[in-house]
Amino acid sequence: MAKVIDHLKQAEKTLFSFEILPPTTGESIQTLFNNITPLMEFKPKFIDVTYHREEKLMKKTPSGLYEQRSVRKRPGTISICAALMHKFHVDTVPHILCGGFTKEETEYALIDLNFLGIDNILALRGDAMKSDTSFIPTSGGHKYAADLVTQIHNMNKGTYLDDELMNPTPTKFCIGVAGYPEKHFESPNIKTDLLHMKQKVAAGADYIVTQMFFDNKKFFDFVERCRAEGINVPIIPGLKPITRKSQLYDIPSRFFIDFPVDFTDAVLKCKNDEEVKQVGIEWSINQCRELIKNKVPCLHFYSMGKATSITKIASALY
C-alpha cells in the first residue's frame, strides 16, 4: 500500500478519491460495501473514513432517573479502514480528531493503525459536541489540529509520549489536514485562517484537502493565497453534488459556505429533488472539468455513503 502524498507525486493526471461515513451502530458493513462498489470502477487511489466523536445523551435508568451517557453513533473508523483495504485493495485514510481523545488515546490509536499497515491520516480538530456551544478540548487532549499533527510527526521521528522508551520504532504516517477556501467559521478573517493553515503544514502536514465549495474561483484564490504564504504542499479540492433542495439552506448553515447565485437560481427552479439532483450533477461536472484543466492533483468527493450522483459525475470525467 502507498501513501497519499506518493500517489499525488506519481500521478500523471488528476486522481479520484472520496470520503465515506461509517455505518451507524447495528448497521451491516455490507451495506457500505454495496453503496461504494460502483465507485470502485473509477479506481480511487484512497478512501477517507470519517470519525464521529461521542455525543452526550440523557438516558432513563430502570429506577426512573436520568443519567448522562457518552454514545458514539458511528463507531468503527479504524476497523472499517482495515476492512476496505482487505476487500478492495485500496489505501484508506482514517480521520483522527482532537475532540474526544487524550494524547495517550491518540497514541494508542496511531499504534493500532501502524500495526494494521494504515499509513495515511487526516488530522482534524473536530467539531464541538452538540451539547456544547463551542469546541472544548478533552482533558489531556489537544486543543488545535496543529498540535495533533505535531504528535503524529513526532511519532514518525520515533518520539513517543514515554520519553524513556528504548529505541522506539518510528512510524511512517502521511498526514493530511483540512483547508477552508471560504475560511473556517471560527477564524476572524482569511489572513488569520491562513496563519493556522501555515502552522499545520509547518508541524508536518503533507497535503491539504479542502472543505466543499461550489465556486471554483474561491478554491483558486485559496491556493494562490497559500502559495503566497509559502504553503507549497499539494491542495486537493473537496466536492459535493447536492441532491435535495433543502440542502440549499442546510449546507450553508452547517458548513458556513456560500452557493453561487447562478447555481441557487437553477436549484430554486427545480420542481422536485430529482431535478435538483440533475442540477447538482451538471454543476459538479462543470466544476470538475475546470479543476482538471487547471491540473489539480485529485478530485475528492464527499459521498456520505451515497454513490449515485458521484458515479454519474465520474463517468463523465474518467
| Helix/strand/pairing category | alpha/beta
Number of helices: 11
Overall pLDDT metric: 93
Q: What is the CATH T-level topology?
A: TIM Barrel
Q: First CA to last CA: what distance?
A: 23 Å
**Content of β-strand:** 15-25%
Give helix and strand order, one letter per element, not per position.
HEHEEEHEHEHEHEHEHHHEH
Widest β-sheet, arrangement of strands: 1-2-5-6-7-8-9-10
* Poorly predicted sequence stretches spanning 5 or more consecutive residues: none
Helix percentage range: 40-55%
Largest beta-sheet characterization: 8 strands, parallel, barrel
Q: Count of DSSP E strands? A: 10
Which class in CATH terms? Alpha Beta
What is the CATH-assigned architecture?
Alpha-Beta Barrel
Spatial shape: globular
Taking all Cα atoms into account, the compactness measure Rg is: 20 Å
What is the count of distinct domains? 1
Task: Give an overview in words.
There is one protein chain. This protein starts with a helix and ends with a helix. The longest helix is centred in the last third of the chain and has 21 residues. Helix 4 links the parallel strand 5 and strand 6. It has a single domain, classed as TIM Barrel (Alpha-Beta Barrel), CATH 3.20.20.220. Helices cover 42% and strands 18% of the residues.
